[in-house]
Write a structure and sequence with these properties.
single chain, globular
Length: 198
């Protein structure tokens, strides 16, 4: 089995690339969705998050309100570091288990989409690292349209993350998503065929 770690900054289009790779035959693992499991009610992660950030982050449903938590951590790097220290080890364990299950089930290509792959130091888990990048102005516009953010809020989300150039240093493959969806689809399909259809 080949394992691909797929990463990129906010608004670069990682999820769209993941969807394309899934249609081509990749078995997708979304680290962000695993991250939701990391602090479900009744887990140690939930208790640790509430202990650190207070009961105010619990929504009406009794789960952690990710929007409220996001406002706290994107505005303060210390808060972000504290949250990462709680959830990253949990997410890593869930990724390892899922990848192992895929291996045991005969999956040929596992794609793990993880925004914080490089920041968390997970590179060695994967055979290859693919980084999705986009033009800065394109990313800001996407965040305004998709998330309803102001330019200032979009910028704060972007600068709270590792600079794109630093992430690219770890890339085995760079996927540029500054153009159209069709251009992206063709680029990813060509890369897949080069890697897995030869």
């Amino acid at each position: 089995m080949i394992t691909i770690g797929l990463t990129g900054g906010i608004g670069t289009g990682k999820s769209l690339v993941s969807e394309i790779l899934e249609t081509l035959g990749g078995q997708l693992v979304n680290a962000d969705l695993l991250g939701h499991q990391a602090y479900l009610p009744g887990t140690a992660g939930f208790d640790d998050v509430v202990r650190r950030f207070g009961k105010g982050v619990i929504g009406q449903s009794g789960t952690i309100d990710r929007k409220l938590l996001g406002e706290l951590v994107f505005a303060d790097s210390d808060n972000m570091s504290d949250l990462n220290a709680i959830v990253h080890p949990i997410i890593l364990g869930l990724i390892k288990k899922t990848v192992e299950d895929n291996l045991n089930n005969g999956v040929d290509v596992t794609v793990v989409e993880a925004a914080i792959l490089v920041e968390a130091g997970w590179q060695d888990l994967f055979d290859e690292i693919w980084v999705v990048s986009s033009n800065h102005d394109v990313v800001v516009k996407r965040l305004q349209t998709r998330n309803g953010l102001s330019v200032q809020d979009a910028m704060s989300r972007i600068v709270s993350q590792m600079p794109q150039e630093d992430r690219i240093c770890y890339a085995d493959e760079i996927i540029d998503n500054s153009g159209t969806v069709e251009q992206l689809r063709n680029q990813v399909k060509k890369l897949w065929q080069e890697k897995f259809k030869s």
